[in-house]
Amino acid sequence: MLSCKSLLWKRKRTKNKTKNELRSKTNGIKQNLISEKYQSEGEDEEINEGFSLKASAPSHTHGVRPLGNFYLNSSSVNSRNTGLGNLQTLTDELVIDILGLLGATHLGVLATVSKSFYVFTNHEPLWRNLVLENLSGGFIFKGSWKLTYIATCYPSFDAMNIGLSCLRVRDFYSDYLFQSWLCANLEMKPEWLERDNIIRKKGISVEEFVSNFEEPNKPVLLEGCIDNWAALQKWDRDYLVKLSGDLHFSVGPVEMKLENYFRYSDQVREERPLYLFDPKFAEKVPRLGSEYEVPVYFREDLFGLLGNERPDYRWIIIGPAGSGSSFHIDPNSTSAWNAVIKGSKKWVLFPPDVTPPGVHPSPDGAEVACPVSIIEWFMNFYGATKTWKKKPIECVCKAGEVIFVPNGWWHLVINLEESVAITQNYVSRSNLLNVLDFLQRPNANELVSGTKDRVNLYEKFKNTFEASFPGTIDQLMRKAEEKRAEEKKPSFWDSVTDSKAGAFKFSF
Ligand SMILES: O=C(O)CCC(=O)C(=O)O
Predict the structure, then answer these.
(1) Which of 411, 416, 424, 449 to mutate to test the pocket of ligand 1 (most atoms within 8 A of CB)?
(2) With a 6 A CB cut-off, is 279 part of the ligand 1 pocket?
(3) Domain 190-468, what fold?
(4) How do the domains of the chain map onto residue ranges?
(5) Is the CB of 411 under 6 A from ligand 1?
């Protein structure tokens, strides 16, 4: 999912040790518990540990089963190994990575070599990459990525009727491939949605917002502050499709017509559905820009002083149930607000000093290794938050509600149904110093995002700001220094207690 706001969204797919560890350690255990039902035809919807599959989820297309079942099975053949020959010693992930170097024709030829190669070469993410790399956004989704590729590149070949990609293979065991299918088909567990500990506010003043939430850098869910948006009433699918016509929007690494994106999102069953995340929507369709307005709490946006040179700052976000944003921190140390117009989103947020379980930022903060998909994070790490040092803030944000995401907070978001949202990142006086500090880091050229001129953004922004508000930066710095000193100073009661303790010591 590279439809990202920030570098921090870029997942390491190569050398992603974390990912391998996740798949083998934790899933090995869970998948061994997958019920016997899945050892047969897999038509049932209930699986162990309270997980359940989405309604009408198909069983694994090629009959792949979790590895644990191999050890329980009396016939000791794993056709995964026999069909790979000498390559059987490679991990599944490595086999997939190697196949990822091939084109469609070679994948097609290899599929005929053995049952094992048939299963591996039909792995949908391989075909997804081929479509996105070769066809860009110019495809009409045909229910699977392989069919989409074939239908687009070989229109006279009737792949649908030949049943090209549906052969089931017996005795093929692989946690890696099974996991990918499972994550694409799992329903969110009710207990993942239960915790709702965010503060909700309706009708508070801007001053209250600033002093209780923005200054102390705490999330809040704001109700009722976008009730006047035309978007809330108007933005259904038909309206959006009609307004945008043939224009293309950013969807992961490609640009797609909205109509085609909806066609895809209606049919898709994959672990990481493509997410529409477009920073230029209001320039492309000015009407969209005029049918919402920045809620009153976020009107001070100092990056605005940069005019056209400001980094990307607003996005329309559209995605089906299961799509979303995996753990990241927002770009350039900005804060953000996110308003849901249609649908609903589950949020999990951790404060800047707590790295979420299963998430491993690189020391320079430029990259983050995390589970392959959001649902995988819930399966394997959500439970750990129950005993985590600081509990995350969580909520479900519904249509008409706005969440404030303070700067530096880790957050993950999953759409619980098809959703449409607007988000904006901004800089106010409360986080101006953080932003300036971020922009002048030594590796700013890697960290700063949303603009071509990453290295000079600090100078440009500082100078422009000083020209408009002379002396304000110094003032803010003095205030921050005083605050730090205040925080260091022991409170009256601490000092009383300390001196008493001292007095006791000496008197004994
Ligand atoms: O998927 C979403 O709506 C959340 C987007 C997000 O996390 C972000 O814009 O930083």
Answers:
(1) 411
(2) no
(3) Jelly Rolls (2.60.120)
(4) 64-185, 190-468
(5) yes
DSSP alpha helix (H) spans, 189-308: 190-194, 206-209, 230-234, 237-244, 258-267, 281-284, 286-290
- For residue 325, the CA-to-ligand 1 centroid distance in Å is 6
Which atom, in ligand 1's list, is nearest to the CA of 419?
Answer: 3
Residue with tokens 């329309």: 316
Output the six-digit token pair for 33. Answer: 């518990």
Residue partners of 145: CB distance under 8 A and separation at least 6: 124, 125, 127, 128, 130, 131
DSSP labels for 150-166? Answer: HHHH-TTS-HHHHTTT-
Is the Cβ–Cβ distance between 142 and 160 less than 8 Å? yes
Q: Are residues 67 and 38 in contact, defined by beta-carbon separation less than 8 angstroms?
A: no
With a 6 Å cutoff on the Cβ, whether 317 touches ligand 1 is yes
End-to-end CA distance of the chain: 66
Give the Å distances, CA to CA, from 507 to 380, 493, 501. Answer: 56, 21, 10
Residue type at 353?
Answer: D
The residue whose CA is least distant from atom 10 of ligand 1 is 330
Name the pTM for this structure.
0.86
For residue 150, the CA-to-ligand 1 centroid distance in Å is 33
335 CB near ligand 1 (under 6 Å): no
The finding on whether 346 has its CB within 6 A of some atom of ligand 1 is no
Residue 448, both tokens: 């700063």
Instruction: Indicate the top mutation candidate among 276, 350, 423, 449 to test ligand 1's pocket, ranked by most ligand atoms within 8 A of CB.
Output: 423
What atom in ligand 1 is closest to the CA of residue 319? 1
Find the 413 Cα to ligand 1 centroid distance in Å: 6
pLDDT values of the chain reduced to their tens digit, one per residue, 508 residues: 333 443 232 223 323 333 223 222 223 323 333 333 343 344 344 455 667 888 766 667 788 999 988 888 777 789 999 999 999 999 999 999 999 999 999 999 999 999 999 999 999 999 999 999 999 888 999 999 999 999 999 888 876 666 555 788 888 999 999 999 999 999 999 999 999 999 999 999 999 999 999 999 999 999 999 999 999 999 999 999 999 999 999 999 999 999 999 999 999 989 999 999 999 999 999 999 999 999 999 999 999 999 999 999 999 999 999 999 999 999 999 999 999 999 999 999 999 999 999 999 988 888 889 888 999 999 999 999 988 878 999 999 999 999 999 999 999 999 999 999 999 999 999 999 999 999 998 888 888 888 877 778 999 999 999 999 999 999 999 999 998 888 877 766 666 555 444 333 332 2
Which protein residue has the closest C-alpha to ligand 1 atom 5?
325
**Could you tell me if the CB of 345 is within 6 A of ligand 1?**
yes
411 Cα to the center of ligand 1, angstroms: 8
**Ligand 1 neighbour 342 (Cβ under 6 A):** no
Q: Are strands 200-202 and 220-223 parallel, antiparallel or unpaired?
A: parallel
